[in-house]
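Exercise 3.2. Students should predict the tertiary structure of the chain below and write it as structure tokens, then compare their answer with the key that follows.

Predict this chain's 3D structure.
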Amino acid sequence: MANEEPAEKRTSPDLNLEGERRSEGRRPLINRSNLRDIIIVVCLISAVLYDLDWVRLSVAGALLTFGCFFHYMTKGVLIRNVVLCREGTYGVVRHPYYMANYLIDSSFCLVSGNVYLLLIYPFLFYWSYGPTIRKEEATLARLHDSEYLRYSLDVPQIFPDAYSVRSMKGVGKGFSMQRITRNEISRFMRFWATGFLIIFIHTLKTTDMQRLWSFDLAVVRDNPYGFALLLSTVILFVASLLVQCKKEESILKAE
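Answer key:
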């Protein structure tokens, strides 16, 4: 006859599931799934109201580049819920994917020129991502027990510290291109297209709006930088859609 589990072990999974259902029912207005959309809309509006200098533009470009790099390297290492990922970017922080999202969204806030949005974003980030991070860490602790405890004590949660940043030299360890999907490539294109679109709105403020709406082609000659940004934005958005369509076609053929 099989040994029965203690009552507390039998009831704990049910309690966990019930707690997850309750947390999903109390989903806040601003959450992980819509935070970036809200930030982008606010950034587009802010670009009309605030100015952008070259210093903030340069820092925003660096943040976006580093965020996309970390996002890419993380996807090439992640094996979800099968093994405890500790190599590559997971040797720098425990949640490198979320750190990449933080850097990308922060770059949008910075390039919008709205310093108030940049200051409030960290609070919105933890408000939106906090429940997901706690849920994921609880799952990893349940699956990997003491191994995850040791890992959580060695590696910081979201941002690297003076010790974990040394693991950047091994950021490519365990990386595999086979884990990079077309959806990820499409997402990177949309990241850059969004940044270009916000910068383009800044350039519109230096253009004669009346000439723009009258389709005066001389505006293109007078503001080549702005229209190069617009063209880049359109190309990247269209390319991202084409990449996703190819993915959907391959899935249909497989079925």
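Discussion points: Confidence is low (pLDDT under 50) at residues 1-23, 248-255. The longest helix spans residues 224-254.
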